[in-house]
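User: Design a sequence. Structure:
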C-alpha cells in the first residue's frame, strides 16, 4: 500500500506551473520598473494558446 497522501503528488505536479507563473509575473513587474523593457502580451498569449 502507498504510504503517501494523495495530495502530495498533485503539489509536485503543480510546482512547474507555479514557477512559470512566478517568472511571467516577475518579468511583468520588471517591465513596469524599466520602461525600456516592453512585454508583448499579445504575443505571449498567442504563444500560450489563448
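Assistant: Done.
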Amino acid at each position: 500500500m502507498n504510504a503517501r497522501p494523495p495530495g502530495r503528488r498533485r503539489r509536485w505536479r503543480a510546482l512547474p506551473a507555479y514557477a512559470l507563473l512566478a517568472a511571467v509575473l516577475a518579468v511583468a513587474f520588471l517591465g513596469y520598473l524599466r520602461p525600456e523593457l516592453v512585454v508583448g502580451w499579445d504575443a505571449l498569449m498567442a504563444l500560450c494558446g489563448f
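The chain has a mean pLDDT of 76. The two ends are 41 Å apart (CA to CA).
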